[in-house]
Amino acid sequence: MTRSLPDLAPLDFETDPKGCCARLYESDAVRWLLDDQLHPGGDRLTRRLAQLAGIERGRRVLDIACGSGATALLLARELECEVAGVDLGSRAIEHAVDAAAAAGLQARARFVVGDAEKLPFPDAGFDVALSECSLCTFPDKRRAIGEMARVVRPGGTIAIADITADLDALPAQLRSAAARVACVADARSADDYASLLRAAGWEPVAIETHDDELRAMADRVEARLRIARMLAPPGEQRDRAAEASALAGMAIDAIARGTLGYALIAARRLASWSDSASSGSSDANRAALGERICAQLIQA
Amino acid sequence: MAARDTLPAATRSICPHCGITLDAELVDRGGRVILRRDCPEHGLIEALAYGDTARWFDAQRYERPGAAPLRRQTATVRGCPSDCGICPEHAQHTCLGIIEVNTGCNLDCPVCFAESGTGYRPDGYSLTLAQVESMLDAFVAAEGQPEAVQLSGGEPSIHPEILKMLAAAKARGIPLVMLNTNGIRLARDPRFAPALAALGIHVYLQFDGFDDATHLAIRGRRLQEVKQRALDRCAAAGVGVSLAAAVERGINEHELGAIVRFGVEHPAVNGVFFQPVTHTGRHPAFDPLDRLTNVEVIRGVCEQLPEWFREDDFVAVPCCSPTCRAATYALYDGEDLVPLPRLVDIDRYLGFVTNRAVPDLDVAQALSGLFSASAAGGTERTAGRLECVACGVGLPDELQQVAARGFMVVAQDFQDEWTLDVAKLRKCCVGEIVPDGRIIPFCAYNAAGYRAQVRAELAAATT
Questions:
Q1: Owning domain of residue A141
Q2: HEC assignment per residue over B261-308
């Protein structure tokens, strides 16, 4: 198989940050940079997130910003989940539909183009809404979480895997628009994500940090950008690669300092304990939830 | 051989003073691994085995079962390390064979594990071409298809028949034939590098640093100009070179980065091998608990070249015991340098303890060949394997040009009387081929008395 250096196209964030981000993840260059592993930890952390969120066999799961459907299809294949995926990128959705057909999973997996801040699904139709490495890219996070909450049935779960960031401690370049696409500029701390969830009436029942996986991913991207700089002819392409690799280097430093990280969060709706108890969650999760509710009551 | 996953770990060692074999143990002390044993006559003996306990455990993941040689030359009678070799207890075949063709040298270095020199020595020897040929035949008989052989000494380049000996190794189809040399003949004799090029020989050049103080402490002479001329002649003739640096605490630790930087920029140089000085033969005074191991060497390289290397760019080489040798490859384009382990998750292919499915067998095989004691930078095989890895992990075709020049950096901690650990020795894959056809693991040869024995036999036979 022959493969050439992909074109590192310039991006237009200012006019359409969200759309730009979705298009970016569809691009050959980005797929190449990420070695087709579009979020830290790859399948391993996807399985871990599913475990934390208590996703059991046959559950109905919505994957928000599903890209080419890797996570949704993994859940359909390994846990026989009934999955839906939504993404702003129409090319990604085409890929996902094709991949589902190729894997013979089209009966259990559907994919639609749509906006995370205005999900094209009715209320309460899913057991779990899952967002992997995408919440950080949404400009209106409150609204995105509100939408996830809306489409999950009472007693269901929101599962989030995302970049965590201490925004004040990040270098300015990383916070700029150019960094948004790399899930950095608008990421929040794990505590902030938890607060956003609580504000929407959801209680995080599990938070796990996996900064080392983010580090490994940033390393791969940085190394590949440096390779791209080596291979690109002198000029715009090479400059772009050099600039991007410098940015990736900054991200690596930030991870080492603890300013950037990666976390998995599973949250349940606080409203009704009986809902949660009847949702078929594992005993361990139920116990954890019980403990947290007790702790909250005591604090109150 | 099973990976060692707890400390203390039981092993055997020897007394550096009287040479007897002793039960020993590896223990963690303050985050470093210490080898300790009690000699009935000389008391408690301790030496630093590995500079970082966490990294010692981490390296054990790379413990891979060995492969048997086709032929073993000795029986197990007294137990390791007294039956070399190779005896039936040995757990690995020989990746790299070494033949020391003479004991004479054109230098008298203050550091020389082989105790070679310019003057007459009663136990000196010089092998004949016929002897070397029969040793090569023994190596072929043991290995079938040997991967690599190195002619060493003494100073092998002053042996009058060295070119014929190298040709004899090539004639036996051994892909990597190296000449281990101090470079003096290469610098002085303009015909020598072209002759090596014509035979397809890779040069393993002693190169300890740049400071006069380094040269004087390790070699007893200022040799920088000689090294530079030798390398330039190799470049002009098209001979590939690995720099081999003996590294000693307080002498040239500060030059590790400069040596790598010099190497990547010199057109003849394809790699650097850093070898902590073994305290066997001739060596300066030292503290066995403050010696250098691969940990300190790698740390030094990374501290001196932070823009290029990190400690986790170095991978434990799995053919020998995983704390013996660590290596990395780097892609260099004249401006930037990218270590290969950042581009491919090597642990997925070479980490043997975690029993996972290997993603791509071709890539795994290529990586196995690259991270081996029989590999050197810049050879055709290395280039082919780097290209295979680059292609297997989806790197662009254009990269093959860069990958073909992949630069190798190795830390290799050979054992001496102080650090000999039988559990490591049993996995040793660097073998001294001796004239009677035995293949003696290199560290046993130096530390367990075989060198003196073989020299005495050869000297007696030639007088």
A1: 17-299
A2: HHHHHCCCEEEEEEEECCCCCECCCCCHHHCCCHHHHHHHHHHHCCCC
Cα Rg for chain B, rounded, in angstroms? 21
DSSP-derived secondary structure letter, A10: -
Q: State how far residue A99 is from chain B, nearest Cα, in angstroms.
A: 20
The residue among A247, A255, A240, A249 whose CA lies nearest residue A173 is: A247
Contact (CB<8Å) B395/A227: yes
Which uninterrupted H or E stretch holds B47? Answer: strand B43-50
pLDDT, tens digit (0-9, with 9 covering 90-100), for B307-344: 999 999 999 998 899 999 999 999 998 889 999 999 88
- pTM score of the predicted model: 0.85
A272, part of any domain: yes
User: Which helix or strand (DSSP H or E) is residue A94 part of?
Assistant: helix A90-102
CA distance A259 to chain B (A): 20
Across the interface, of B339, B342, B396, the residue whose CB is closest to A231 is B396
What is the DSSP code (8-state) at residue A136? Answer: G
Nearest to A220 among B335, B342, B396 (CB): B342
For position A219, which CATH number holds? 3.40.50.150
A32 and B394 within 8 Å at the Cβ level: the answer is yes
Q: What is the ipTM of this complex?
A: 0.80
Number of domains in chain A: 1
Residue A5: which of B331, B339, B396 has the nearest Cβ? B396
Report how far residue B316's alpha carbon sits from residue B324's, in angstroms, rounded to the nearest whole number: 8
Q: What does the alpha-carbon distance between residue B57 and residue A266 come to, in Å, rounded to a whole number?
A: 33
Mutate one of A1, A3, A5, A37 to test the B interface: name it (highest B CB count within 10 A): A3
Question: Hey, is B389 helix, strand or coil?
Answer: helix
| Segments in A127-269 forming alpha helices (H) | 141-151, 172-175, 177-180, 190-199, 211-231, 236-257
User: Rg of chain A over CA atoms, in angstroms?
Assistant: 19
Partners of A216 on chain B (C-beta within 8 Å) are 345
Residue pLDDT, tens place only, A115-172 = 999 999 999 999 999 999 889 888 899 999 999 999 999 999 999 999 998 888 888 8
Give domain status of residue A11, yes or no: no
Q: How far is A68 from chain B (nearest CA, A)?
A: 19
